[in-house]
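Moderator note: this is an archived Q&A kept for reference. The question asked for a predicted structure of one protein chain; the sequence and the answer are reproduced below.
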Amino acid sequence: MKKFLQRIKALFKRIFKRSVSNSQQLSPLINTRLETYIPTVSPRWESGLVLVCSQCANEQLGSTASEDLENWLKSRLKFEGLWGDFRVVSTSCLGVCPRMGITVVLVSNESHGNSPCLIVNPRSDRELLYSYIKQNKD
């Protein structure tokens, strides 16, 4: 019976590997008895993911401040031809909750888990924030 289960497991692995496209890699998920795999892809925005907290603006500066900052960053990145390398995403509370300003986190491959968490004024710090983001270009 044990050999039969091993053969079935090997057959499922071969079938699954064939069904996954060549551009995707397989990451093991170990929490089940039979090994299962979750496909992963390399995103276009490998240089950085800019997370803009939407809750900071709601609490302090008015509901559109973080949305305005997010839209400004997107426009600027598109204008400079960096939109595919970077992605700007609105997120809910990041747990920093500054008294004034908006929390922005820049996640990149270069940060190795130490992503900088910035508190920015959505109006006066735009150019400084953009310069900081651009420095993280591969």
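Archived answer notes: The helical segments are 2-19, 54-61, 65-79, 126-135.
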